[in-house]
Write a structure and sequence with these properties.
The chain contains twelve helices and 21 strands. It has about 475 residues and is of the alpha/beta class. The chain folds into two domains: about 110 residues, Urease, subunit C, domain 1; about 325 residues, Metal-dependent hydrolases (TIM Barrel), CATH 3.20.20.140. The strands form four sheets. Strands 1, 2, 3, 4, 5, 16, 19, 20 and 21 form a nine-stranded mixed beta sheet that branches. The chain has an eight-stranded parallel beta sheet with strand order 6-9-10-11-12-13-14-15. A two-stranded antiparallel ribbon has the order 7-8. β10, α3 and β11 form a beta-alpha-beta unit. The radius of gyration is 21 Å and the shape is globular. Bound molecules: dihydropyrimidine-2,4(1H,3H)-dione and zinc ion (ZN) (2 copies). The site of dihydropyrimidine-2,4(1H,3H)-dione has 9 residues, from loops.
């Protein structure tokens, strides 16, 4: 049999198995796992390395205009960060402007990504204006392979939907097989707290966190789940940060409700205390929901290990601290925390930060694969093409070197953010090679794949209820 590529002597790690094997690739897909002779195929020796399915980050924002700024990373630099970090697929968020057709928003995001992305990509659709009876537009998105929709319970006047609108969208997913992804924070309450803080001249970055309490997230999470339960459909909570919100997800799942949630590395590794760094440094960590007080992360780790949380994504939304290249940055909020563009970079560091959790005994190796690749693939209609190492799957393969440490720094990262939230942190492993559909994209420090070789992925409608 003619193979194009054989990865020799790998330790293959999936969400369920671990074994020694060569991986044979033909036509961009995994052809077989076993023992093979090279016979003219390109060979890569993976002795001592662990082969895992390419990371899937189902929450990125590349080339996103937000709060008077635009993210530092477009699909070119964002996807470069992704691939160097072992992520081979991203699901980014297209944004419907008010009054705009969903189709138009989708076209805009296709234009942003096509010819630029180095990794395979797909989109969720952020619905900001469902109109009186525009639910049928959602059906068309599902037909286009955009089978998930993000709605907001925060940012009144910008993104926020009221409960009736949310309920209408949820009901529609019963028919079209879409899934609602929810930003669950009580935006009305937060807006009042923000106004009150500013009136009291509390303008420093830390007030971003102090005006977005845990209970505002827990309340909205409970309400979102209740609305989904009434509609009889699953729901997915994005960027869950507060352990009290996770508790709502856990309780719902315990009674059989198909509620799912993702958290992000920043909520597992960073904390409120980062806002109290000197000067304006806390702005680096201004994101929504905010970082939570120390102790919260321990609860999240436990929940992640036992499936109260299903996915770790990043919410990669990179704004520079200082304006550059014509793009304003976080300095927009120097005098007023509410004007600091919300978001931080993360797509490049997710996999290795999570591998650190394996080394520390917080997650099993299989759980690492599950939360970084297999579960997001299953929840978002990409499985079994993505998210697994088995014959027939796309040959998206990451070779982890578990013995070579890596130090995270803005000086060496590949995204365009001018800082890294994990600056100076040393993780116990590094990524040596990355393959997407059998093409070697990264070899050590070198980028081999050409810009724009990432493909748009049409995702299937939901296969579960
Ligand atoms: N929510 C996101 O998912 N990303 C950036 C900002 C926000 O509030
Ligand atoms: Zn959000
Ligand atoms: Zn986001």
């Amino acid at each position: 049999m003619g193979y194009d590529l054989i990865i020799k002597n790998a330790t293959v790690l999936t969400a369920s198995d671990k074994y020694a094997a060569d991986i044979a690739v033909a036509g961009g897909r995994i052809a077989a796992l076993g023992a093979f002779r090279a016979d003219g195929a390109e060979t890569v020796d993976a002795r001592g390395l662990i082969a895992v399915p390419g990371g899937i980050d189902v929450h990125t924002h590349f080339d996103m205009p937000f709060m008077g700024a635009t993210t530092a990373d477009d699909f070119r630099s964002g996807s470069e960060g992704a691939v160097f970090g072992g992520t081979t697929t991203v699901v980014d968020f297209a944004i419907q402007k008010k009054g705009e057709a969903l189709r138009k928003a989708l076209d805009t995001w296709h234009e942003k990504a096509e010819g630029k992305s180095l990794v395979d990509y797909s989109f969720h659709m952020i619905v900001t204006d469902l109109g009186e009876k525009n639910e049928s537009e959602m059906d068309k998105m599902v037909d286009e392979g955009v089978s998930s929709f993000k709605l907001f319970m925060a940012y009144p006047g910008i993104f926020m939907s009221d409960d009736a609108t949310i309920f209408r969208a949820l009901l529609r997913t019963k028919e079209n097989g879409g899934m609602i992804c929810m930003h669950a924070e009580n935006g009305g309450v937060i807006d009042i707290l923000v106004r009150k803080a500013l009136a009291e001249k509390k303008t420093a970055p830390k007030y971003h966190a102090l005006t977005r309490p845990m209970s505002a997230e827990a309340e909205a999470t409970r309400r979102a789940i209740a609305l989904a339960e009434m509609a009889g459909v699953p729901i997915y909570i994005v960027h869950l940060s507060a352990a009290d919100a996770m508790e709502e997800v856990r309780r719902a799942r315990e009674r059989g409700v198909p509620a799912f949630a993702e958290t992000c590395p920043q909520y597992l590794y960073l904390s409120y205390e980062d806002y109290e760094r000197p000067g304006f440094e806390g702005a680096k960590f201004v994101m929504s929901p905010p970082l939570r007080p120390r102790g919260n992360e321990e609860r999240l780790w436990k929940g992640l290990a036992r499936d109260d949380l299903q996915v770790v994504s990043t919410d990669h939304c990179s704004f520079c601290m200082k304006a550059g290249g014509g793009k304003p940055g976080k300095e927009l909020g120097k005098k007023d925390f509410s004007k600091i563009p919300n978001g931080a970079p993360g797509v490049e560091t997710r996999m290795l930060l999570l591998w650190q959790a394996v080394e520390e005994g917080r997650l099993s190796e299989h759980r690492f694969v599950e939360v970084t690749s297999t579960a997001p693939a299953k929840l978002f209609g990409l499985y079994p093409r993505k998210g697994h190492l088995s014959p027939g799957a796309d040959a998206d393969i990451v070779l982890i070197d578990p013995r070579k440490k890596h130090t995270i720094s803005a000086r060496t990262h590949h995204t365009k953010a001018d800082y890294n939230p994990y600056e100076g942190r040393t993780v116990p492993a590094s990524i040596r090679d990355v393959f997407i559909r059998g093409r070697r994209m990264v070899a050590g420090e070198k980028l081999l794949g050409p810009m724009g070789c990432g493909r748009f992925l049409r995702r299937s409608p939901r296969q579960f209820n």
